[in-house]
Amino acid sequence: MDIAATNTGWWFLGKIKRFAQDPKGVLVRKLHPEVREQYRLSEYTGPSGYWGELREYQLSFLKSMGMRSNDRLIDIGCGPLQGGIAFISYLEPDRYVGVDICVPALAEGYKQIVKHELVAKNPRLLCSRSFGRDVLQCGAFDYAWSSQMLYHLDPDLIPDYFRSVSGHLKPEGTLYADILGSEAHIPEDKLWRGLRHYFHTKKFLEVEAGRYDLSMENVGRIHEYGYPVPCQLRHNHMLRFRKHA
Ligand SMILES: C[S@@+](CC[C@H](N)C(=O)[O-])C[C@H]1O[C@@H](n2cnc3c(N)ncnc32)[C@H](O)[C@@H]1O
């Protein structure tokens, strides 16, 4: 087959899919079931139109930071498993736990597990208001991950979050979580599914994490790791929190 023609075909399909995620693309969404599903699921995660890219970014980030297939991962604020499906596919069975407060998002996540034939990987999805602390045994995870979630937490919840993460991680385990960059230009009181956008400072997070034996480093902007450049939150800072041995 002519490679140039194939590439043009993929480019065109990508354009249609992207257009379908646009509010004006209602007709394409009605006609294309896969696009329709991604659009619906993106309402639980945002931003629309980058479902595949955001999935790929999440897995490739953690792999680039050393996550191996036999590591254990807790995905806090997992939503409908945009990253989760890629993590579950990559990890060995019984290695993935997703936690969220949003029951409909978790229900969508379960459907995705079935659709992608990943039931045999035994992923666990938990609905928890304590970031999983009320349900899980301590010290079980090599990695914790919170993508596009930390900035939705009220400052009063941050100590509880670090307490839970510190309890979940093995000695020398690591959390990665992104926070808003100042370029985001989002009013704090702008709501996303009832949640505000908080501009937590690195100093505040460093101090709060330190109380639970976690030391913080800034590892760069998320667009440096494959987060889609057209998206507004590309300047988010990715933070690493290592548990002290
Ligand atoms: C923007 S979505 C990101 C979803 C997913 N991490 C991703 O990147 O595709 C934020 C998620 O955090 C969840 N969330 C917000 N506050 C939470 C809390 N206190 N505990 C657990 N999950 C929370 C929301 O329900 C939502 O699913």
Explain what the structure shows.
With about 240 residues, the chain is an alpha/beta fold. The protein has a single domain (about 45-245), classed as Vaccinia Virus protein VP39 (Rossmann fold, 3-Layer(aba) Sandwich). The chain has helices at about 5-20, 25-30, 35-40, 50-65, 85-90, 105-115, 160-170, 200-210; strands at about 75, 95-100, 125, 140-145, 170-180, 215-220, 235-245. The protein has a seven-stranded mixed beta sheet with strand order 3-2-1-4-5-7-6, sandwiched between helices. Strand 1, helix 5 (about 85-90) and strand 2 form a beta-alpha-beta unit. The protein is globular and about 55 Å long. The model has no long low-confidence stretch (mean pLDDT about 90). The structure holds S-adenosylmethionine (SAM). S-adenosylmethionine binds next to strand 2.
What keywords describe this structure?
Rossmann fold, alpha/beta, 8 helices, single chain, 245 residues, binds S-adenosylmethionine
In the CATH hierarchy, what is the class? Alpha Beta
Would you list the SSEs in sequence order as H and E? HHHHEHEHEEHEHEE
Tell me about the largest β-sheet: 7 strands, mixed
What level of helicity do the residues show?
Answer: 25-40%
| Count, helices | 8
Structural class designation: alpha/beta
Rg of Cα set = 18 Å
Low-confidence stretches: none
